[in-house]
Write a structure and sequence with these properties.
Length: 396
């Protein structure tokens, strides 16, 4: 039995952040009903190139496995009645509309508590449900810029740079999954549901963490560091080798001394300019060029073997192709096979939450409205005649 079996979530969310959060819970057994608008042809993610087919895509499959998909046209009164019937038998209503929309659409706790007093209503918006930007659409790339991420990413002489991944979306999805579980714990303990107001902006700003506290309390001005270096730990960066790059991180004195031994330069460990973390930070401009020259003398593979032998934290800078050849990836069972009716056998990334003895679900993301009739029959006990009438009225 999966740990979240018996948990039912109604999800109004598109593309990445929200769908990732609810999929994480679905992987672990939660019953997620993804509700899409038939008038807009459902989740935009179904149509994102490359690798898009009729009302489906590999991007959509990335974020929506193990969910049921139904269509509801909430502009039709009968569809709103269906939604309310589902609220009665569900635990969570989750949405990713703009900040001013949950209340307007009746997806907030105040609107739904009369139907189900224990319902947990979670909204993940661009900027939250309060403040001057509440009505604005917010997206990963924009928030990376607004929250300062781009300004501290990239080469010092280059332009502000976004992350290579949609990390605002991904981190927000995982925070949303946590928030859902927090709300559920509270509701089951107290018998009263709640509203949870999340935003991409709030989460991105909160992840500034240590540069933020340095700035707020000491006036620290974060700057881009060459070679993807750490702003405070030296050495902690990429080093170019004969044939590629390695990442080295000496966050403790022990690792620094181990590195000096691995490089055949014990004199650096004894040099007063580099004798401590604070000194290495202070004299970085004298140290790093010397280290760079040393790393150019061998290949990445040679250095990684030497560094491993000397217990120095280091790793390769892999291409995406190389990532999936790493023995560690196989050992951790990070890939799963999911059978799709059109794409065939899909290789997908497994949920990273591993519980001993528990096999995660492996159902592909459903087609647009694929489960609508089954949900109405099984969960709400609607008969075929009622379902057909709803379809004629454009409710589903």
């Amino acid at each position: 039995m999966l740990p979240l079996e018996g948990l039912r979530i109604l999800a109004f969310s598109q593309v990445g952040a929200g769908p990732l959060g609810t999929m994480t819970l679905a992987d672990l057994g939660a019953e997620v009903i993804k509700i899409e608008d038939p008038g807009t042809k459902g989740d935009i993610g179904r149509y994102v190139a490359p690798y898009a087919i009729e009302k489906d895509s590999l991007l959509f499959q990335t974020f929506n496995r193990n969910k049921m998909c139904m269509t509801l046209n909430l502009r039709v009164p009968e569809a709103r009645e269906i939604f309310h019937d589902l609220v009665k038998i569900s635990d969570v209503v989750f949405c990713t509309a703009r900040g001013d929309q949950p209340e307007k659409l009746g997806w907030d706790y105040e609107s739904l508590k009369g139907i189900n007093p224990e319902i947990v209503c979670v909204s993940l918006t661009g900027y939250g449900r309060t403040g001057p930007r509440a009505k604005e659409p917010g997206f990963d790339y924009i928030v990376q810029g607004m929250a300062g991420w781009m300004d501290i990413t990239g080469d010092p002489d280059g332009p502000p740079t976004k992350s290579g991944l949609s990390l605002v979306d991904c981190s927000s999805g995982l925070v949303a999954a946590l928030a859902i579980m927090v709300g559920l714990h509270s509701a089951r303990k107290n018998g009263v549901g709640c509203d949870i107001d999340l935003s991409l902006y709030d989460i991105a700003v909160s992840l500034l963490n240590y540069p933020a506290i340095w700035h707020l309390n000491k006036g620290f001005q974060p700057k881009r560091v060459a070679d993807s270096g750490h702003p405070g730990i030296v050495p902690c960066q990429n080093f170019k080798t004969k044939d590629g790059y390695v990442v080295v991180m000496c966050y403790s004195q022990k690792f620094w001394e181990n590195l000096c031994e691995a490089l055949g330069r014990k004199d650096l460990a004894e040099d007063e300019r580099f004798i401590s973390l604070a000194k290495r930070y202070e004299n970085k401009e004298a140290l790093i060029p010397d280290l760079k020259e040393i790393f150019l003398q061998k290949t990445a593979e040679e250095w990684l073997e030497i560094l491993k032998t000397h217990d120095v934290p280091a790793g390769p800078v892999n291409t995406i192709e190389e990532v999936f050849k790493e023995p560690q990836l196989s050992a951790r069972e990070l890939l799963i096979d999911v059978e799709h009716p059109v794409f065939g056998t899909l290789k997908e990334l497994a949920c990273p939450i591993k519980i001993k003895g528990v096999e995660q679900r492996r159902e592909p993301a459903a087609g647009l409205g694929e489960n609508t009739d089954d949900i109405l029959r099984t969960f709400l006990k609607y008969d075929d005649r009622k379902i057909e009438a709803l379809r004629e009225k454009g409710a589903i």
